[in-house]
Inverse folding.
């Protein structure tokens, strides 16, 4: 089969011919339908991902969906031909975090497509435990749910108890993940949603998806948000940028007992200091979402509650899609269509 392999960190993926893998106990062989691309793929290509050490060459592609081609020994509850998404995180299923349902914080966390063989190939192996059935939905539409949608969903689901009635939540960065965050806040909470971004078009999009207010991310953002909240500040901030200015804004607008969830890999540092951060605030770095949360998202999308915005590319257009991702010229999440074009 054909596969886009990372053979060395710091080098682009190489299209190679490799053996179709054989599913072991508890695993299935997926015929790939679509694989979404994400900024973490660029990180892998440029220098590798810090928390996932290099273990040798692997196939890229961590937002994966397709059809079950073959069941390995001891697989229950799935049948050949069924359409599924595979979680981007590969957890062990046995550690303390996994057993308590927080498999996205697995002690032995790995990822199909970021450290071991992923889905930018004709076939991929995945553990049946980490698949979610998508019914008659198109795998090329559903693939990005496993990461682009799951990460913001988990951030909001895990923090929603911090948003009381009449609460206010802020989403900083209305890009691929932030647009989902606005929609999940709309679906899971009653919060008034304030969107913050540097781009007017992104702010307009946020208002269409359910935000109540849009604030341009500039030197006046703090004053504007305090004015909108009667000087009280907000209950929750979801930061999808994560640089110094956005973290500083988050710290200054969050009221006592509030929560700040940082998803963006912008490399910023959040100061923890008396009278700077209000008392009782929780700060959290979020990492993906659990398998149970992935199931919830699939349900929401199947019911038409969440708008999924994708831009499709053929299997031979990977480099073009990666360039578009790098240059910010995409109009939706890039998904490589695999089945029709190999
Ligand atoms: Zn990703
Ligand atoms: Zn685990």
């Amino acid at each position: 089969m054909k596969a886009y392999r990372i053979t060395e960190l710091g080098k682009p993926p190489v299209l190679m011919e490799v053996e179709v893998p054989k599913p072991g106990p508890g695993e299935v062989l997926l015929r790939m339908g679509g694989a979404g691309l994400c900024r973490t793929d660029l990180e892998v290509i440029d220098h590798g991902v810090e928390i996932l050490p290099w273990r040798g060459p692997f196939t890229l592609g961590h937002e994966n969906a397709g059809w079950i081609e073959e069941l390995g020994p001891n697989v229950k509850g799935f049948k050949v031909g069924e359409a599924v998404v595979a979680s981007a995180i590969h957890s062990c299923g046995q550690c303390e975090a996994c057993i308590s349902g927080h498999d996205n914080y697995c002690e032995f966390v790995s990822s199909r497509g970021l450290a071991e063989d992923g889905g930018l190939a004709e076939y991929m192996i995945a553990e049946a435990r980490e698949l979610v059935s998508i019914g008659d939905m198109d795998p090329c539409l559903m693939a990005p749910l496993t990461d682009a949608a799951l990460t913001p969903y988990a951030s909001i689901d895990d923090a929603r108890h911090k948003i009381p009635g009449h609460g206010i939540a802020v989403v900083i960065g209305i890009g691929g993940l932030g647009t989902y965050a606005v929609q999940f806040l709309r679906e899971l909470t009653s919060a008034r949603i304030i969107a913050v971004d540097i781009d007017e078009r992104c702010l307009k999009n946020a208002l269409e998806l359910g935000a109540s207010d849009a604030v341009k991310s500039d030197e006046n953002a703090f004053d504007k948000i305090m004015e909108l909240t009667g000087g009280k500040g907000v209950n929750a901030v979801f930061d999808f940028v994560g640089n110094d200015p956005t973290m500083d804004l988050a710290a200054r607008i969050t009221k006592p007992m509030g929560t700040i969830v940082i998803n963006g890999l912008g490399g910023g540092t959040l100061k923890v200091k008396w009278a700077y951060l209000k008392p009782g605030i929780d700060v959290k770095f979020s990492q993906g979402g659990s398998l149970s949360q992935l199931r919830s998202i699939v349900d929401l999308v199947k019911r038409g509650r969440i708008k999924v915005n994708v831009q499709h590319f053929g299997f031979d257009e990977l480099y073009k899609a990666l360039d578009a991702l790098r240059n910010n010229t995409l109009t939706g999440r890039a998904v490589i269509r695999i089945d029709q074009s190999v």
